[in-house]
Amino acid sequence: MTRTKMTGATALLVCCLAAAGQTPPPGRAAQAPLVIPNPHYVSIELEVDVARPAAEVWKRVGKYCDIGEWMRLPSCTILSGKDGELGAVRSIANEVLVGKTELSYTYTQPVREGRPYNLYHGTLEARPVTATTSKLVYVLMWDNSMLADDTARENDVANRKRTFTTALNNMKILAEGGTLPPAPARGPGR
């Protein structure tokens, strides 16, 4: 008996056939239905120029728990794993480090009980521009299909843009040797 592994292309074929109401070819299993049947994936790419080399920028703001400083959060600690290594979990939303390069990292948030999973991922990168300048690039991707309507989805994107633009500007200040101004007051529930 010969067994074959299902490749990505085969899985796509099976998925497309199933969506079209066709039966997959013999020997290929149909995939289970999606938990979120009609996802609405969105992404945001934000960037800011920094007057420092990328390696210096990354050294100042690229450690996995540096987020506490530039996002103005009370604290960040590594809950498991080692800071900067794949699989590390930080206390900020229990985010898991799932990818990294010399000047970037990608993280995701775990599935929460009682909440639909939105496949949230973020990538922060210090990208060289010249020998003495760089840019910080922050990319977010998630599914906001579970929100009530287009207005709610647009507000969700706008709020994240505002939050992460502020974070990038804070990183720029820190990377260029500046000091952040006092953090805004946090009200109840924030």
Biggest sheet features:
5 strands, antiparallel
Q: Give the overall pLDDT as a whole number.
A: 87
- Calculate the terminal CA-CA distance, rounded to whole Å: 59 Å
Structural class: alpha+beta
The geometry reads as: globular
Count, helices: 4
The portion of residues forming beta strands comes to 15-25%
Q: Which residue ranges are poorly predicted, with pLDDT under 50 across at least 5 consecutive positions? A: 1-14
Number of strands: 7
Written as H for each helix and E for each strand, in order along the chain, the element string is HEHHEEEEEEH
Percent of residues in helical segments?
25-40%
Arrangement of strands in the largest sheet: 1-7-6-5-4
Taking Cα atoms only, what radius of gyration do you get, to the nearest Å?
20 Å
Give a short synopsis of this structure.
Helix content is 26%, strand content 23%. It has 190 residues and is α+β, with helices and mostly antiparallel strands. Helix 2 packs across helix 4.
Task: Report on the architecture of this protein.
With 190 residues, the chain is α+β, with helices and mostly antiparallel strands. The chain is built from 4 helices and 7 strands. It has helices spanning 8-19, 54-61, 67-70, 150-175, and strands spanning 41-50, 78-80, 89-90, 96-101, 104-108, 121-128, 134-143. A 5-stranded antiparallel β-sheet has the order 1-7-6-5-4. The radius of gyration is 20 Å and the shape is globular. Residues 1-14 have low confidence and may be disordered.
